[in-house]
Amino acid sequence: MSRPKPPERLEATIVDAETDGFFLCVRFAPVRGTPAEIEDLIRLGPRGDLDAVHGVGRLLRILRSARIRAPRDPYALADAPHDAVSLIRRCRGARVCLHLRRRIRRGITVWTESGVDRIAGILDFGEDAEGLWIRRSGGQSLLRIPRTSLIRYSATSEKSPEVISVEVPSRSRLH
């Protein structure tokens, strides 16, 4: 049994931020190497949710890297995402250390008698005597497409870096 590959460590600068639904989208530019830009979706709410606790921690480390004072109640930023964006925009140019892992997003396009469907977030798929079966992420039930209506299908996969954590670089690494 093989062990998972350890996360990659990359030094980057903060480029910009914007809101993306319930998330704060922060963009980073690696100091050297590729890709040109890395996006991190940071969830700030609801209060007490484990993903929100991790997200607020990331936000606080970004603010610390730029030496920007954190708000008294950082969890309140979930109710005012534009305030979080303005705080991150004040951090532009600050250096952070990102821990990344490679994320593979799989999808499938299915052509049937009733039209074309694009299904994202799939874990696995296959064909059997009855037709095409698709296992989706998020614990959803197995999706079945009967062979009588199936014309063809095409699978896709997209590789991208996923930010696991954000750290303030050590003083010895600051330039």
What labels would you give this structure?
49% strand; mainly beta; 6-stranded antiparallel β-sheet; 175 residues
Protein described:
The protein is mainly beta. It is 14% helix and 49% strand. The strands form two sheets. Strands 1, 2, 3, 4, 5 and 9 form a six-stranded antiparallel β-sheet that branches. Strand 4 and strand 5 form a beta hairpin. The protein is elongated and about 60 Å long. The termini are far apart. The mean pLDDT is 87.
How do the strands and helices of this protein lay out in sequence?
Blueprint: E1 8-20, E2 23-30, E3 38-43, H1 50-65, H2 81-89, E4 95-112, E5 115-120, E6 122-128, E7 131-136, E8 143-146, E9 150-167
Antiparallel strand pairs: 1-2, 1-4, 2-3, 4-5, 4-9, 6-7, 7-8
Query: Order of helices and strands, N to C?
Result: EEEHHEEEEEE
Q: What is the arithmetic mean of pLDDT?
A: 87
Helix content: 10-25%
Rg, Cα atoms, Å? 20 Å
Quaternary state reads single chain
Number of helices: 2
Work out the number of β strands.
Answer: 9
Please outline the major beta sheet.
6 strands, antiparallel
Alpha carbon gap, first and last residue: 41 Å
* Overall body shape: elongated
Helix- and strand-based class?
mainly beta
- Give unreliable regions as ranges: none
Strand content: over 45%
